[in-house]
Amino acid sequence: MTAKPIRPRFPIAFRSFHGARLKLWHVLNLAGSRLGFKDQSIANERAAQFYLDAPPLQNRVDDLEARLRALTDEKKRLEESLARRDTEISAVSKLLHASELAEQRQKNDIDWLVSLSVLFLRRPAWWFMLIPPIQRKLFHKRILRKNLFDAKRYVSRYPDVANSGQDPLFHYVRHGMREGRVNDLRSQE
Hints:
single chain, rod-shaped
């Protein structure tokens, strides 16, 4: 018959993790018997030594848990900072995209104005003998043939231009481009 191991009594400070230590006590006793300790007292001495080493180990565990909490808080703070940075990057990206679109729109406007100017400057010599209303009508036909501007569609789209009595092309060049109004023929390109 084997001797039953005797569990030593410990002060209250040791009892906080008594359940876990008790399980480990049984594991050590089983290990001692399986390792072939002839005397159960050797296993008991090792288990008692573990109990004596427990408070410093518990302090180490507490320190590690406090460090883990601090690292978890730091991780959370860094994730929030990263989320803010992502939001800022997204906003800057949208601004950059809007700026690129505005730049492209300006480039297209310049190209369109150059095309219109070239068409205007390449008028035949007899052009100047015509009266201004006929000149305007012929010029509107020329720019319509070149797919640069359709005065009728512009006036139908923006009735305030017709109400103002201005030439639609003049209104578009002078005000419409700046206001972001759409020239249907240019938007099809």
